[in-house]
Structure formats: structure tokens, C-alpha cells
Amino acid sequence: xxxxxxxxxxxxxxxxxxxxxxxxxxxxxxxxxxxxxxxxxxxxxxxxxxxxxxxxxxxxxxxxxxxxxxxxxxxxxxxxxxxxxxxxxxxxxxxxxxxxxxxxxxxxxxxxxxxxxxxxxxxxxxxxxxxxxxxxxxxxxxxxxxxxxxxxxxxxxxxxxxxxxxxxxxxxxxxxxxxxxxxxxxxxxxxxxxxxxxxxxxxxxxxxxxxxxxxxxxxxxxxxxxxxxxxxxxxxxxxxxxxxxxxxxxxxxxxxxxxxxxxxxxxxxxxxxxxxxxxxxxxxxxxxxxxxxxxxxxxxxxxxxxxxxxxxxxxxxxxxxxxxxxxxxxx
Length: 331
Fold this sequence. Notes:
The protein is an alpha/beta fold. Helices cover about 45% and strands about 20% of the residues. It has 2 domains: about 5-90, Arc Repressor Mutant, subunit A; about 150-330, Rossmann fold (3-Layer(aba) Sandwich).
């Protein structure tokens, strides 16, 4: 945690203006600069021609990306850095540009954070996500989960479990890796109907369509069909208020056989709610974008699980990016 004496004017102004670099990155990804330049060294004029952009605009963007070490400039030509080639070229299997674009789509709401604090209401406009935003969100979640799920699959003990419920699982990344690590396991991803095309495409890509099913489900309104002996709830509680979270956990538990395991993965605050940094800041993201969402403390999640009849609750030793953690228990 940052101490008061860690701050100085330079650091303060650096934080204040840090969105300049973020917007530079967003523009590079949104315009497809990294994918365009993947063919090899190119001049600003050549990049501008490919993008249909102004030459001056392209040049200053390329120079800024080079200053950020995301590109390498030699003479008047530019090429991707090794990092950018791996993570910012859309054709790369390790592309994380979808998450970058998800962050881009949140900028307008965050710019009105003061209004959200005064009103207690989201500043993001209501309504269905546009296709591009939905793709960025779901595939961004896939990007992030792909960095965690393979490691988690080796840590979480699902031996003897036969049917996993991946509630709110989006593209099904965790279900995929849990099934890959446990050959006797099958899984069902339950999420909104709009997630179905992304989930089925991703599941098929891993050759697991015969073991992982998708069911359309609004987990705040619908009973969950089927019977399971394991339930995985990853990054869904933070989108709702305490009463709704209790209902989500209750519905998951209602679909479990006795002895079933429940695992909740989220950004977890300490019990005074003032750290770690990312979960605390993420609560503001939920203020800006949802009616009731927030980060929860470990104690709050434990209480919700206990009220749903879950026992033997424990915090797993796993710690993911941005202070994500896992609480598990047995029904």
C-alpha cells in the first residue's frame, strides 16, 4: 500500500496524466497499428496509407508508441517491439487487445466519476452492449482467464468430480481448462444468451464440444437446470449488490448435489476495504458502470457462503493478477 510519504508532486502529476499513455495505447490497438505494421519496417507515410489516416497524426502516434517501447524506430521506419508482436498483433494467439479495447470502452464513464460519487448511480448509459463492446468484454475476459486458468487447473483439486457448473462463465475459459486437466470431468457454462456464440466457438476451438455444454441463463432470475457436484463462480459477484450476490450463490447451491464444492473467484478486499489497491479502485469501476456492484471483502463473501448453507469455507493459497483470490466450501 502506498504510504503518505511516498507521494511527491511529480508522482501526483504522473498519476493525474497517466490516461495520456492509456489513450495512446487504446488508439494504437483500435486503429490496428500493431497488426498493420506486422509485415515489417514501415514509414509513417506507409502506415498512414494503410490506415487511411493523416500522415502527421500517424507519425506522432508512432513516435509516442516508440517512446513507450511498444515500437522500435530506426531512421524513419517503425517495427513492433517483441512484446507488441506477441501481445498486440491480432493474429497472435496471445493477443490481449480485446481487454485493451474493453478498457477503452470504459473511458467515457470513468471521466464522469465525480458524478457517480455524487449520485451513487452509474454514469454509463443503459442498454445493450454494441457488438464490438460485447466482443471486447467477452474476449477480454478470455484473454485474462487464459493467463490464469492453466495455472489454476493444476492447483484446484477436482478429482472425483463429474459435472462442473461454470456460472456466468462467458466464453468458458475456466471450464475448458478444468476439463483439460480432469479427463473424467464434464462442464456446463451457464450465461446470458448473448454469450453463447463466443462460448461455443471457444469450446469448439479446444475440441471439447462433446464435454462442455452451454445453457442460456440469467443467474439472477432463472433456476439453473441440471445437477452438479462442483460450481465455479468467477468474477460475477462484483457486478451486483449484496442481496443479489446472496441470490446468485443460493441459485448455484440449489443446483449442487450434497457434498458439492463451491468456488468463488473475485477481486477480494481486505476486511477494512482500503486495500489491496486494485480491488479498491475496481469498486469505483463498478460504481461507474453498475447500479449496485462493488468489490467485496473476504469476510463478506464468507458470510454469503455460510448463509447459503456452505461449510468448510477456506481461502485457497492462490493469488491471481490484481489481487484476485478464491474462497471454497462444501455443501
